[in-house]
Amino acid sequence: MKIFKSISSIQKYLSKQSQIAFVPTMGNLHQGHLSLIQKAKKPKTCIVVSIFVNRLQFNDKKDFASYPKTLKQDLEYLKNECVDAVFIPTEQEMNTNHSEFKLSFFNLEYQLCDAFRPGHFEGVITIVMKLCNIIQPHYLFLGKKDYQQLFILKNLMREFCYPIKIMAVPTKREKNGLAMSSRNGLIQKKYTTKISELYNELMQIKKTCKSLIHIKKVELRAFQNLTKNGWIVDYVSVRSQKTLLSPKNNEKKLVALIAAHLGNVRLIDNIEFCI
Ligand code: AMP
Question: In Å, what is the CA distance from 247 to each residue of 66, 215, 219, 237, 252?
Answer without folding.
Answer: 37, 10, 14, 11, 8
